[in-house]
Prior knowledge:
Mean pLDDT of chain B: 97
Number of helices of chain B: 9
CATH class of the largest domain in chain A: Mainly Alpha
EC number (chain A): 2.5.1.18
Mean pLDDT of chain A: 96
Strand content of chain B: 5-15%
Helix content of chain A: 40-55%
Largest sheet of chain B: 4 strands, mixed
Oligomer: heterodimer
Low-confidence stretches of chain B: none
Keywords (chain A): Transferase
Strand content of chain A: 5-15%
Shape of chain B: globular
CATH architecture of the largest domain in chain A: Up-down Bundle
Order of helices and strands of chain B: EHEHEEHHHHHHH
Family (chain A): Belongs to the GST superfamily. Alpha family.
Number of domains of chain B: 2
Largest sheet of chain A: 4 strands, mixed
Protein name (chain A): glutathione transferase
Organism (chain A): Fregata magnificens (Magnificent frigatebird)
Amino acid sequence: MSGKPKLHYFNGRGRMESIRWLLAAAGVEFEECFLETKDDLTKLQKDGSLLFQQVPMVEIDGMKMVQTRAILSYIAAKYNLYGKDLKDRALIDMYVEAVIDLNELLMTHTFQPADKKQQHFATIVDKATNRYFPVYEKVLKDHGQDFLVGNQFSRADVQLLETLLMAEECKPDILAKFPLLQSFKARISNIPTIKKFLQPGSQRKPPLQEKDVPKLMKIFH
Amino acid sequence: MSGKPRLTYCNGRGRMEPVRWLLAAAGVEFEEIFLETRQQYEKLIKDGVLMFQQVPLVEIDGMKMVQTRAILSYIAGKYNLYGKDLKERAMIDMYVEGITDLMQMILMFPFSPPEAKEKNLDSVKERATNRYFPVFEKVLKQHGQDFLVGNKFSWADVQLIEAILAVEEKIPAVLSGFPQLQAFKIRMSNMPTIKKFLQPGSPRKPPPDERYVETVLKIFKK
């Protein structure tokens, strides 16, 4: 037993990727156990390791944590990435919840049936550029600081960077009208722990390919 | 300006109901503004009051808070309903998130097409009785305490009692295999602040009906 957190999920981004990002940003090494078949999932369910029979599951500090948000909140608080007080937390939570909403849209794109893909893509671009990005651009403009909340690096910065990069994978020029988000992206990417995570060979996972979808469906459906 | 939190939403449960429950459980009085027309909603957006152009909106302690989970976490933190340390918080968060997944099914139910309603109801029953309720039945049985986490009233207890009552409205006998949850339900319902919230005339909203669904679609549908 190494004492390192141990992540249980399939070998891909999905709902575990934000957790990988946050641990990496906090400089915390972690191990991964990949589900390859439905039997792998069933085994975890049968031995009572999954509180609600679902992954992600993270073994950390003697707990078998489930529910992505619960896991992220625990890691953020433990490693001081959750602001200095209740009001910082409130702001971080608001920013993060919206980022998660956008993430959800980006994540589900690969699963859209062919006849819905174009519409879905248009929705992603519309929401990203009209609803979400303008808010963060304005936040950075208004306070002129390096980080989103409280002049201090937090989970909000990590989760926003993750989403900005995913949005760019979807549409490379999506940040064209957001100069402050562009410089935010460069700045946060250069933080040593994050820089390391962005290099080849890290535990960051590549985008889901269409060819991988059938294998995923077999495990979870 | 009264200093009381002010809630802006439609006049119905939706995503605001857990916030009403939590404030009420904490003994906090609040005011409500009800959205009735699309123009009202568009005005809120134009005034820049909705950070991501969405409700729920809760004005509290000088903040215009949006995003339901952010609002609930803040209230729980402020009114000591979030456990005594990081590990209790983790338990509370896990339980709340699981219950929220179940509540999501109930939230969407009125908006499902008539031909899907029976199937959706079966899904709610299946998930409640096979995935979620057994977990909390076991938690209560194992520690034998009155509350889910840390022998102390928390957000998790409020969320669970709300969910139990919401599911029972749709599936009256749903607790029949869960004696611990039956006792929990009675115990929570008798806590003074919750008892008050469960009485007629409180801010608690009735189950969604066709009129509520119409209003929501009219205001929000693009």
